[in-house]
C-alpha cells in the first residue's frame, strides 16, 4: 500500500475516491485505465478488512480523524475533486465528506447505488433499524441466513431460539457472540444457483440483509424468491446530500468537467 507524502509529488489534478465498495473499485479501474496520464487517483479505505481487494492507483487506509481532519487532508494533498463511492450504510463517512469538502472548497460527487425493488414472488419485510429487524426476526423463521456485516451482529446475538448462518467478508478474529451459528466467509458477487444451494442445504427459513442495493449481492434475493423464503431488510439511511449519479460513465463525465476544465 502506497503512503501519501504530506506534499503531493504529482502536478496532475488529484481525485480522491472514498471507497470500500465494488463500485469504488470499478471507478478506480476506469480512471486508471482511461485517464492516468491526466489524473492522479487515490482510493481511501477505512482499513477494516485484513485483506482488501487489490486496487489500481494509490491507496490510503484508515480513518482521517473526523470531518475537520479530512478537510486538512484534502487541502494538504491538494485534492481537486472527491467522489463518495462508499456503501449506502456508511453514513458517517459520507456526512464527514460533505462537511470536509465544504470547508476545503473541494467539489464532491456521490456515486449512489440503485435500490432493490421487490418482484412478483418476493416476500420482503422492511425495518428501520438493525435492532428492529432482530426484535422481530422470530416471527419469520428459526433458521436465519444473516448477511448484515460484522459490525451489525450484536442485536441478533441475544436470540437464543434462532440458528444463524452468518456470512462475513472474512473470518472474524474473535469468536462471535452467538449461542449457535455457522460462520462462512465470502466476498460477492455470488451466483443465484450457489446462493440457492447454500440456503437449501442449511435449511434456511429467513434471509436477513441490509437493503444495500446494487448487483454484487443481489443473487441472494433471487435465491430467496426461488425458495419462497421471507426476507427481512433493514432500510437504508437517508442518501448523502448534494449532487449524485448512479453510474461510472456519469462520474467520469463529471470528473473530466470538474477537474480538467480550465474554466472551472
Ligand atoms: P461509517 O460508519 O460511515 O464511518 C465510520 C468511520 O470510519 C468514519 O468516520 C471514518 O473515520 C472511517 N471511514 C469510513 N469509511 C472510510 C473510508 N472509505 N476512508 C477512510 N476512512 C473511512 O463507515 P462504515 O459503515 O463502518 O463502513 C466502513 C467502510 O466499509 C466504508 O468505506 C464503506 O464503504 C465500507 N462498507 C461498509 C458497509 C456497511 O454496511 N456499512 C458494507 C460494505 C462496505 P474518521 O472519522 O476517523 O475519518
Kindly describe this structure.
The protein is α/β, with parallel strands linked by helices and 264 residues long. The chain folds into two domains: 14-114 and 238-260, NAD(P)-binding Rossmann-like Domain (Rossmann fold, 3-Layer(aba) Sandwich); 124-234, 3-Layer(aba) Sandwich (Rossmann fold). It is built from eight helices and twelve strands. It has a six-stranded parallel beta sheet with strand order 3-2-1-4-5-12, with helices on both faces. A six-stranded parallel beta sheet has the order 6-11-10-7-8-9. Strand 1 (14-18), helix 1 (22-35) and strand 2 (40-45) form a beta-alpha-beta unit. Helix 2 (67-76) crosses helix 3 and helix 6 crosses helix 7. The chain starts with 13 loop residues before the first strand and ends with a helix. 34% of the residues are buried. The model is unreliable at 1-5 (pLDDT under 50). Residues 18-21, 44-46, 48, 63-66, 70, 86-87, 89-93, 96, 149, 210 line the site of NADP nicotinamide-adenine-dinucleotide phosphate.
Anisotropy-based shape = elongated
Strand order of the largest sheet: 3-2-1-4-5-12
> What are the secondary-structure elements, in order, as H or E?
EHEEHEHEEHEHEEHEHEEH
Tell me the span between the first and last alpha carbons: 32 Å
Main attributes of the structure:
single chain; alpha/beta; Rossmann fold; 2 domains; 6-stranded parallel sheet; 12 strands; 21% strand
Amino acid at each position: 500500500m502506497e503512503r501519501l507524502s504530506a506534499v503531493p509529488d504529482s502536478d496532475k489534478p488529484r481525485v480522491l475516491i472514498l471507497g470500500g465498495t465494488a463500485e469504488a473499485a470499478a471507478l478506480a479501474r476506469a480512471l486508471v485505465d482511461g485517464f492516468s496520464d491526466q489524473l492522479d487517483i487515490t482510493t481511501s479505505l477505512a482499513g477494516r478488512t485484513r485483506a482488501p481487494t487489490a486496487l489500481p492507483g494509490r491507496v490510503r487506509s484508515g480513518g482521517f480523524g473526523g470531518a475537520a481532519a479530512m478537510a486538512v487532508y484534502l487541502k494538504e494533498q491538494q485534492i481537486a475533486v472527491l467522489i463518495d463511492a462508499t456503501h449506502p450504510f456508511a453514513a458517517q463517512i459520507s456526512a464527514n465528506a460533505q462537511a470536509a469538502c465544504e470547508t476545503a472548497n473541494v467539489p464532491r460527487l456521490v456515486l449512489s447505488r440503485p435500490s432493490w425493488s421487490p418482484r412478483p414472488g418476493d416476500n420482503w419485510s422492511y425495518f428501520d433499524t438493525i435492532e428492529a429487524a432482530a426484535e422481530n426476526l422470530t416471527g419469520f423463521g428459526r433458521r436465519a441466513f444473516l448477511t448484515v456485516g460484522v459490525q451489525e451482529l450484536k442485536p441478533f446475538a441475544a436470540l437464543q431460539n434462532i440458528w444463524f448462518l452468518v456470512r462475513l467478508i472474512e473470518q472474524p478474529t474473535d469468536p462471535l457472540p452467538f449461542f449457535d451459528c455457522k460462520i462462512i466467509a465470502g466476498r460477492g458477487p455470488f451466483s443465484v444457483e450457489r446462493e440457492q444451494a447454500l440456503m437449501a442445504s442449511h435449511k434456511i427459513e429467513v434471509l436477513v440483509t441490509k437493503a444495500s442495493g446494487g448487483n454484487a449481492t443481489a443473487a441472494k434475493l433471487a435465491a430467496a424468491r426461488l425458495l419462497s423464503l421471507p426476507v427481512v431488510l433493514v432500510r437504508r439511511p437517508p442518501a448523502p446530500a448534494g449532487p449524485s449519479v448512479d453510474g461510472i460513465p456519469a462520474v467520469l463525465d463529471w470528473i473530466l468537467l470538474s477537474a480538467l476544465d480550465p474554466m472551472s
